[in-house]
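Marked as duplicate of an earlier ticket. Keeping the data here for the record.
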Amino acid sequence: MDKSFKASQSMHCSGQAGEVPENMKGFLCCLKAVERL
């Protein structure tokens, strides 16, 4: 996974804060984003 893709996913997850993602991949991404905070 390259950095540009990871950064894009991070931005997407930030926009979904407080919402339940439709797929598990997005959910895991959001969890990782929260752990960094």
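See parent ticket for discussion. The mean pLDDT is 61.
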